[in-house]
């Protein structure tokens, strides 16, 4: 594999469906990677600027979002050093904010030869060379060149799935319409598919049960340990009248403190260090780190071997 098409260390939280916890998952995983003594940059590519708005106070936010001279588009086209755009949060993550001009940035990308590689070459590579270790990318909702650009940069994804109807369909669409076509161009590693915002039990007929079943039957290799359910459990669930010996509780679960933390612009580990789901964000952080290290080692073999 040529070294220059390897992913930079990092991950895109992706699924083309609104409200499936892409942004909050990215923030929590980013913070857990940073907690292992890494310099982590979160890149907000979403034109709705949600992450940027959450993390910054209103005055800073308005200044940043309306700055015509210094925004991610300027960095992508070589006019601004991306490091000058970073804003450090009080939990140790560096935010590369979105911009109200994201529509123009996408247009310019489309009109530029290999525009889709600009995020990688002009933003992520220089920041990596300047000592930033991991890049968590919050993509725009929906398909398009900015999502492709995010994948071209880090070539790795974590996919969140929530119990609301339709998200497994969203997963099929992401795999068919984004991951598979991109894999013709470069490798894309699915680091994890994780359920999120799961209610307390997966009792009969709940959408939690359906999600756990679909994921364990069709995507088991991508599930973190905390999300795995023994397939025999579903057979027991299918037999009416039979009581489950043990009700499985696959994570990541719905927690008020995760939601409150996010609304407050914080990862849950900072807002409520006692939250029982933090260990799952740690698991995902370790999966990202391992995936990146494995690829780095392969790269070294390719260079020296
Ligand atoms: N484990 C959880 N428990 C409770 N609430 C959660 C959990 N994870 C995420 N949420 C909440 O779910 C909501 C949607 O999350 P988020 O904004 O991250 O989704 P998104 O996919 O980025 O949405 P959009 O499509 O608008 O970008 C948020 O209010 C967030 O606080
Ligand atoms: Mg979002």
Largest sheet: 7 strands, mixed
Q: What's the CATH superfamily of the largest domain, by name? A: P-loop containing nucleotide triphosphate hydrolases
Q: What percentage of residues falls in helices of 4 or more residues?
A: 40-55%
User: What's the CATH topology label of the largest domain?
Assistant: Rossmann fold
CATH class of the largest domain: Alpha Beta
Oligomer class: single chain
The total number of structural domains is: 2
Category by helix and strand content? alpha/beta
> What sequence of helices (H) and strands (E) makes up the elements?
EHEHHHEEHHEHEHEHHHHH
Rounded mean pLDDT is 90
Global outline: globular
Please identify, by name, the CATH architecture of the largest domain. 3-Layer(aba) Sandwich
Radius of gyration: 20 Å
Features:
binds adenosine-5'-triphosphate, 305 residues, 7 strands, binds magnesium ion, 46% helix, Rossmann fold, alpha/beta, 13 helices, 7-stranded mixed beta sheet, globular, single chain
Description of the structure:
This protein is of the alpha/beta class and 305 residues long. The protein has 2 domains: 7-197 and 255-280, Rossmann fold (3-Layer(aba) Sandwich), CATH 3.40.50.300; 198-251, no CATH class. Helix content is 46%, strand content 11%. It has a 7-stranded mixed β-sheet, sandwiched between helices. α1 (22-35) packs across α13 (278-304) and α6 (118-129) runs parallel beside α7. Magnesium ion (MG) binds at residues 22-23, 46, 50, 138.
């Amino acid at each position: 594999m040529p070294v220059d098409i390897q992913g930079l260390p990092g991950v895109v939280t992706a699924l083309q469906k609104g409200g499936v916890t892409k942004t909050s998952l990215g923030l929590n995983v980013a913070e857990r990677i940073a907690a292992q003594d890494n310099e982590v940059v979160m890149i907000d590519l979403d034109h709705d600027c949600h992450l940027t708005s959450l993390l910054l106070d209103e005055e800073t936010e308005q200044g940043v979002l309306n700055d015509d001279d210094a925004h991610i588009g300027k960095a992508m086209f070589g006019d601004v050093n991306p490091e000058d755009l970073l804003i450090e949060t009080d939990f140790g993550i560096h935010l590369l904010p979105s911009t109200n001009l994201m529509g123009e940035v996408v247009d310019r990308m489309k009109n530029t030869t290999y525009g889709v590689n600009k995020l990688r070459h002009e933003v992520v590579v220089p920041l990596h060379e300047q000592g930033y270790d991991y890049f968590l990318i919050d993509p725009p909702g929906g398909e398009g060149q900015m999502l492709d650009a995010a994948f071209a940069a880090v070539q790795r994804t974590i996919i969140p799935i929530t119990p609301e109807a339709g998200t497994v369909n969203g997963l099929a669409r992401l795999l068919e319409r984004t991951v598979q076509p991109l894999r013709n161009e470069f490798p894309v590693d699915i680091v994890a598919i994780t359920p999120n915002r799961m209610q307390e039990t997966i009792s009969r007929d709940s959408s939690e049960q359906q999600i756990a079943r679909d994921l364990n039957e069709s995507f088991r290799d991508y599930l973190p340990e905390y999300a795995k359910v023994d397939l025999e459990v579903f057979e027991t669930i299918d037999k009416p009248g039979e009581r489950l010996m043990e009700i499985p509780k696959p994570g990541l679960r719905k927690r008020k403190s995760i939601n409150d933390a996010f609304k407050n612009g914080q990862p849950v580990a900072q807002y409520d260090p006692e939250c029982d789901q933090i260990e799952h964000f740690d698991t995902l952080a370790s999966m990202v780190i391992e995936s990146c290290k494995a690829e780095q080692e392969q790269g070294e073999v390719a260079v020296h071997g």
